[in-house]
Write a structure and sequence with these properties.
single chain; alpha/beta; Rossmann fold; 3 domains; 31 helices
Length: 764
């Protein structure tokens, strides 16, 4: 979520009033804003997308709740020591959190372990361990519409009789200390992005958020006029018309068997009725196609932790496979491919399959990704129910990612086209009229230059490196991962360095290359990549021949509040994943909206950005998905490229020989060995096209006016990438609710009783 203060002031229309009031107290608002800690309760794009969605849902007047875990420790703070990443605990609650309100009155029990007893009355899950879920509510204000939604985060608490009830005459002190075991559930965020780690505590977290949330939703449904009760039993027929639940990847997939357990075991609905309601309630968003990221939980772990849920999953699978067998008799291989249970050395539950079978809609997050989901990853399921599969291209909130972080540009745009674009970003197309307006071109360039000077000062303060603010700011910020190919950027840096050294008198367009992002603590290769970038920076930044022509900065502890500083100052945005690996990307959209040009592959939302702006207004290079597929078929041989390209050979040889690690010449052996022998992401195959494309970037940068005109064309084409547009599509195609642009009267004005009711019955 990042910081909340400035976003709240902007959405409430109070920023100027607050700035002025604080100024009159002799204080500086920006200084105050810098004191607030980021709420870093997610890893990367998936978590930040949810935050943008909350802002858009409130702005569109949807009755929506965001549910998650109130981690005591969020994503770790990254320190760089001697070029290596070191992790520190993110104790973000140390000074308290003024934005949250604990709601002990809504505390709910969550059960683990135990066993299942079957009788004529049905199944009973007994002898369980109980953990309490305590909700904390954070307000989510819409933009200037007096709507405030809720983000409800669950914290784990041990019940007061924990370890003290049953036959425990023993150690009272130890029993109280053991309360930590229960409360550890919400202690810390697992720091993996696009990687599945099948740990018991992580499964506990996933079930914890799901079980608490579903009880909360059902409590709210029963309290409403819709949960009509025939004598004692609630009638759930209208449940899917009143409730829509969107699964953000497979992490909350246990919600499907949990809702079935509630309906069948507790509410005593017949299976078929329960299953129909469940399917109509859930929809699933897929966020990645990387096989190592797909959740596959061992059956024996689920059996131990959630025995009833395993039985329900088996029953879902049995009925699912019976259905497929009736459509495709004797096709055992299809049954194997489509089963929720994967046989093998350890039996595992494929959570994506569970989500597809248990949902009425499945979507990818960019056109190209949704195609890959349909035709490759889940082709058997799409063949069965093609109407279930959709696309919903990601977006970003223009409130945080333009108004808040780039007020200069936001104001300049408003002067030209009015202020309405903030709620309807498609209006940015009106800027096309000004693409030849010399004054506007100069003003856009001036705002960018001011942002760069401000960021350069920040860098000099934090990193003690002198930055040339007229150099091209070439920025690559995102989680460190092999598929995102920070290594390819690194090879380009080394290539630029070698060219300057070879011919110091030759014209060189000065660059400041900024790379930032966190590596998962257990991801060895990603940590080596960070060390390599810092080792290269050490050499480049201290070479007198290079001087101010080329500087390399590794941006420490990249997070939302730092993104808000670096993105408005960026000239060139690096979006260079291997085609077919980045589901969408959202950083790409933030840079586009803030007046950077993009160098990128035809991957994720880059494809749609090129479609909107015209491919000639992005620097597109490298293999397309088809080329990658073809290269896989032929067999990728890295050695070929190394032998054919002298500059690539020189760069790789320097890494290999210890030119960048003189004290330990073998330091980067693992990296070099990977690049030659098991590079799944084919860095060498795109190197030549990347370097050539970068030459075109430098050439255009020399012509400031032509560069800025291209920038304006990009900003004018960025309207599609508002999360408001994305949420309208979810609302229309999946949740079946109507956004409302009614501005609720403020609390100090009386309002008619009729206005009390929300116009849309459904809560997402």
């Amino acid at each position: 979520m990042g910081r909340t203060l400035q976003n709240t002031m902007i959405n409430l229309g109070l920023q100027n009033a607050c700035d002025e009031a604080v100024y009159q107290l002799g204080l500086d608002m920006e200084e105050l804003e810098e004191i607030e800690e980021d709420a870093g309760l997610g890893n990367g794009g998936l978590g930040r997308l949810a935050a943008c969605f909350l802002d858009s849902m409130a702005t569109l007047g949807l009755a929506a709740y965001g549910y998650g875990i109130r981690y005591e420790y969020g994503i770790f703070n990254q320190k760089i020591r001697d070029g290596w990443q070191v992790e520190e605990a993110d104790d973000w609650l140390r000074h308290g959190n003024p934005w949250e309100k604990a709601r002990p009155e809504y505390m709910l029990p969550v059960h683990f372990y135990g066993r299942v007893e079957h009788s004529a009355a049905g199944a009973k899950w007994i002898d369980t361990q109980v953990v309490l879920a305590l909700p904390y509510d954070t307000p989510v204000p819409g933009y200037m519409n007096n709507t405030v939604n809720t983000m409800r985060l669950w914290s784990a608490r041990a019940p007061n009789d924990f370890n003290l009830r049953d036959f425990n005459v023993g150690d009272y002190i130890q029993a109280v200390l053991d309360r930590n075991l229960a409360e550890n559930i919400s202690r810390v965020l697992y720091p993996n992005d696009n990687f599945f780690e099948g740990k018991e505590l992580r499964l506990k977290q996933e079930y914890f958020v799901v079980a608490a949330t579903l009880q909360d939703i059902i409590r709210r449904f029963k309290a409403s006029k819709f949960g009509s009760t025939d004598s004692v039993r609630t009638v759930f027929d209208s449940f899917p018309d009143q409730v829509a639940i969107q699964l953000n990847d497979t992490h909350p997939a246990m919600a499907i068997p949990e809702l079935m357990r509630i309906f069948v075991d507790i509410e005593k609905l017949p299976w078929d009725k329960a299953w129909d309601i469940t399917k109509r309630t859930f929809a699933y968003t897929n966020h990645t196609v990387l096989p190592e990221a797909l959740e596959r939980w061992p059956v024996d772990l689920v059996e131990k932790l959630l025995p009833r849920h395993l039985q329900i999953i088996y029953e879902i699978n049995q009925r699912h496979l019976d259905h497929i067998a009736s459509l495709f008799p004797n096709d055992v291989d299809r049954l194997r491919r489509m089963s929720l249970i994967e046989e093998g050395d350890t039996k595992r539950i494929n959570m994506a399959h569970l989500c597809i079978v248990g949902s009425h809609a499945v979507n990818g997050v960019a056109k190209i990704h949704s195609e890959i989901v349909k035709t490759q990853v889940f082709e058997d399921f799409a063949e069965l129910e093609p109407e279930k599969f959709q696309n919903k291209t990601n977006g970003i909130t223009p409130r945080r990612w333009l108004l808040l972080c780039n007020p200069g540009l936001a104001e300049l745009i408003a002067e030209k086209i009015g202020e309405d674009y903030v709620r309807d970003l498609s209006q940015l197309t009106k800027l096309h009229k000004f693409v030849d307006d010399d004054l506007f071109i100069r003003e856009v360039a001036k705002v960018k230059q001011e942002n760069k000077v401000k960021f350069a000062l920040y860098l000099e303060k934090e990193y003690k490196v002198k930055i040339n603010p007229s150099s091209m700011f070439d920025v690559h910020v995102k989680r460190i991962h092999e598929y995102k190919r920070q290594l390819m950027n690194c090879l380009h840096i080394i290539t630029m360095y070698n060219r300057i050294r070879r011919d110091p008198a030759k014209l060189f367009v000065p660059r400041t290359v900024i790379i930032g992002g966190k590596a998962a603590p257990g991801y060895h290769m990603a940590k080596m990549i960070i060390k390599l970038i810092n080792a290269v920076a050490q050499v480049v930044n201290n070479d007198p021949v290079v001087g101010s022509k080329l500087k390399v900065i590794f941006l420490e502890n990249y997070r939302v509040s730092l993104a808000e500083k670096v993105i408005p100052a960026t000239d060139l945005s690096e979006q260079i994943s291997t085609a077919g690996t980045e589901a969408s990307g959202t950083g790409n959209m933030k840079f586009m909206l803030n007046g950077a040009l993009t160098i990128g592959t035809m991957d994720g939302a880059n494809v749609e950005m090129a479609e909107e702006a015209g491919e000639e207004n992005l620097f597109i290079f490298g293999m397309r998905v088809e080329d990658v597929t073809e290269l896989d078929r032929k067999g990728y041989n890295a050695q070929l490229y190394y032998n054919r390209l002298p500059e690539l050979k020189q760069a790789v040889d320097q890494i290999k020989s210890g030119f960048f690690s003189p004290n330990d010449p073998n330091l980067f052996n693992d990296v070099v060995n990977m690049l030659f022998h098991h590079d799944r992401f084919k860095v060498f195959a795109d190197y030549e096209a990347y370097v050539k494309c970068q030459e075109k970037v430098s050439e255009l940068y020399l012509n400031s006016k032509a560069w800025t005109r291209m920038v304006i064309r990009n900003i004018a084409a960025a309207g599609k990438f508002s999360s408001d547009r994305t949420i309208k599509e979810y609302a229309r195609d999946i949740w079946h609710v109507e956004p409302s642009d009614l501005k609720i009267p403020p609390p100090n004005e009386p309002r008619d009783a009729g206005q009390d009711k929300t116009p849309n019955g459904t809560a997402a």
